[in-house]
Amino acid sequence: MSEPRLRFRGGKAVSALPLVFFIGWAIAICVAGAPDENGLILGAAIGLVFGMFACRDRWWDYAEAVFAGMANRIATVAIVAWFWAGMFAQVLREGGLVDGLVWLGGASDATGGIFVGATFVLAATFASAVGTGYGTTVAFCTLMFPAGLIMGADPVWLFAAILSGAAFGDNLAPVSDTTVVSAATQETDIPGVVRSRFKYAITAAVPALILFTVFGGGGGGGVDAAQAERIFAETASPNGLVLLIPFALVIGLALRGYHILVTLTWGIITAVALGFVFDLLTVQQVISLDTEAKRVGGALVTGITGYLSMAILILMIVAGGHIMKIGGALDAIVGGLASLAGRSIARAEAAIWSIVFSLNVFITINTAAEITAAPVVSQLGKKFKLHPYRRANMLDAVTSALGYIFPWGGGVLIGYQTIRNLEETYDFVQAVSPTQVWPLVLHGWFLAAVMLIAAFTGFGRTYEAKDGSQTKTPPGDD
Question: Which among 37, 234, 324, 351 has most CB atoms closer than 10 A?
């Protein structure tokens, strides 16, 4: 049974109006300096209203199509996975995993560039555990940034290392929002996606680590020994390192093929249990009942509510994508790109890379950019029989990389504001400007470059066989 179609005044191209308006709105508010998720939701809603007025068919049919788009399993999977991942991340943070990593960095007596390199590794580890690059940026800027200045790290290189670690984990973590969205939108499994993308991530991470270590020193001025001792006494503790156990458990279960909700549920249970046993968590930190304020709080609640705005946004964007699909604009876009690519799979993948790159330049919340690009990546990739893992990796790697590079990007701005807040606490801290740090977010740049090179050279490219399995044999050659 064919999918119902909608007709629009001005032709098929006008069915893209909801998403086109959303992209323009997103660019406008980001350039204005207000990259706010709630503002993005409003833009998506207005775009859907404009689409309704442009529809030639019954508005009832258009409204039902909007609801049909929101009911898409892609959105449901992403939203539910976000809620579970948010709870897991908050429990680890409340339990002091970051404090343990700070202690690990300080206990190694690493100074200068070695500390910067270690910060990159530790931030990447934490981001891979909790699945949130933004949360990693805030946590490590709060704790590792002042500690690094004490240890002789260059502030610009140190900030860049933190952002690079956040990008690494955002791309590779099984519980990351971008990982979940890339797998869901390309209709594939998370464990396989994660295993298949490790080669790209490590190819970018190794040279980044070397350069951070070589060039990251040269700081440390204006910090005395008393300040150093006080900061480490207040923040560093090895106790939180025990929470690497639930992190390892989640990674292990995910890579063995367990469902994302199963892996995260066991991760949460294990983290809470260890937190109680080792006195890292109290019941109030995990879940609390405030009768005076008439609300429930704690890490589990915060983990869910932190993703509510993004959950609403994905529903809006997926609905806009559905309208574009049944209105014919998506087929027209994919057909045009396929025509430009001809029979060249390299040009097709370069087109995919360009689309994802362009949207991430302008839409500063990387998950929103990924969701917007996903339908085009899926349709164009399917035309060339690219395996879902490959499509998901082309989508996610570029998205994760660019979300922590550009001065107007969400990750960069969050880190910048966090460091600015530290100026009130530590007299030796001076904020690093986003325009200073963006060329040095090496893992982000290297990862984007790796994927572009992979598009032209075929590195890691796989196709979808008739039985759905991966094959390196191009369609028509088997």
Answer: 324
pLDDT tens for residues 100-138?
Answer: 766 776 666 667 888 899 889 988 988 887 777 777 887
Torsion of CA 18, 362, 314, 65, to 10 degrees: 20
> pLDDT category, 150, cuts 50, 70, 90?
confident
Q: Which tokens hold the place of 134?
A: 């933004």
Residue-wise burial string across 144-157, b where 16 or more C-beta atoms lie within 10 A, e elsewhere: bbbbbbbbbbbbbb
Question: Chain-centre distance of CA 267, in angstroms?
Answer: 20
pLDDT of residue 29: 79
Better-scored residue on pLDDT, 222 or 433: 433
Q: At 361, which amino acid appears?
A: V
φ/ψ (deg, to 5) at 153: -80, 145
Q: Which three-class secondary structure state does DSSP give residue 464?
A: strand
Give the CA-trace dihedral at 397, 402, 404, 409, to 10 degrees: -140
Both tokens of residue 64?
């039902």
Decide: 185 and 378 in contact? Cβ < 8 Å: yes
Q: How far apart are CA 336 and CA 429, in angstroms?
A: 51
SS3 217: strand
Residues 6+ apart with CB under 8 A from 315: 70, 75, 79
What kind and span of H or E run contains 422? helix 410-422
DSSP 243: G
Hey, what are 319's tokens? 């609905």
Residue pair 443/66 in contact by the 8 Å Cβ criterion: no
C-alpha distances (whole Å) from 447 to each of 1, 118, 134, 452, 454 are 42, 19, 18, 9, 10
Other C-beta atoms lying within 10 Å of the C-beta of residue 50 = 16
Local structure of residue 438 (DSSP, 8 states): G
The per-residue pLDDT for range 337-372, each reduced to its tens digit, is 777 777 888 988 998 998 888 877 766 567 777 887
395-430 as b/e: b if 16+ CB within 10 A: bbbbbbbbbbbbebbbbbbbbbebbeebeeebebbe
In 3D space, the residue among 43, 48, 46 whose CA is nearest the CA of residue 32 turns out to be 43
Find the length of the chain. 478
Distance, CA of 273 to CA of 473 (rounded, Å): 48
Q: How far is Cα 331 from Cα 380, in angstroms, rounded to an integer?
A: 9
Q: d(Cα 183, Cα 374) in Å, to the nearest integer?
A: 10
Helix (H, G, I), strand (E, B), or coil: what is residue 258? coil
**Strand partners of residue 387:** none
